[in-house]
Amino acid sequence: MAPSMVAGFLALPITLRSSIASSPDAIHYLYLKPHEPKDADEDATRSLFLVNIPITTTPQHLKHLFATQLSGGRVEDVHFSEDSAGRPGIAAGTTKSRKRKRLTAEEIEAGLDKHRLPQVFERDVHISGSTAIIAFVDKPSMELSLKAARKAIKAGKEIVWGEGIEDQLPPLGLKRYQQANQLRYPSRRELLRCVDNYMTAYAQMEDARALENAKKRQMPDEDGFVTVVRGSKGGLRTEDAKGLDEKQRAKDEDRSVNDFYRFQMRERRKAEQEELLKKFGEDRTKVDAMRRKRLSSKG
């Protein structure tokens, strides 16, 4: 008999039904415990941390598991480990309003990964051993769900994964491809929207980096001098006029070079975007030709 506790986690056994009649069902262990992040917030106290979720897990699976199959609390949000947006414990788009602060260039660059091309399929498959954070409506709901999981383990209750919501989930496997019936491409409008969002975030990163560099130029150097820049209201120590002119001239030249390179980068990104759209059109034409050839051969 498997232990009910492993390294502080409750080991909840769930049954995964086999899609092949001749193959037996599998027992999968889902490990859960109260969420205790290093940077705790008010949402962590009403959240559970799950380890080793099945690769087919969806938010519907977890909401059905805790609210219906375990008769526990009501789930508010689900956050998977692969998600790049949102903060731990709360899904993207549901964060509570807080005082907006200016993001640094590094923070904006780290968030560029969330801008992706549109999905072709409606359902993702997780990598083996993935984790998830479940945020309940309140702390009593979380505690009730944890207590229900303990009771189910002690009573040896069989929990069939996704039982009762099969018709609410997008298909997987062969049915997934049969439903699509053909290769699918994102629409031109959706593709442009994703690319524009990425380029907007990239431009914000450049602006933030330029602002940070401008602030650094206002800091005194090792000799205690502050370089004069346009718009600066700070004072300046007395120094040789000739040396100051040469230093300012070099800085102006660097600024003009940097502006030119930024223009080059924008032009290159525009050309890459046009090339991407051109390739999409060529691929679509090839697929259409192959489909017509296949249909004519069948006829």
From TrEMBL:
One GO cellular component term noted in the UniProt record for this chain: CURI complex
Entry keyword Signal: yes
GO annotation terms (biological process): ribosomal small subunit assembly; rRNA processing
Record keywords: Signal
Signal peptide coordinates: 1-21
InterPro entries (UniProt xref): RRM_Rrp7, RRP7, RRP7_C
Basic and acidic residues: compositionally biased ranges: 236-256
PANTHER family: RIBOSOMAL RNA PROCESSING PROTEIN 7-RELATED, RIBOSOMAL RNA-PROCESSING PROTEIN 7 HOMOLOG A-RELATED
Family under the similarity heading: Belongs to the RRP7 family.
Name of the protein: Ribosomal RNA-processing protein 7
Annotated source species: Cyphellophora attinorum
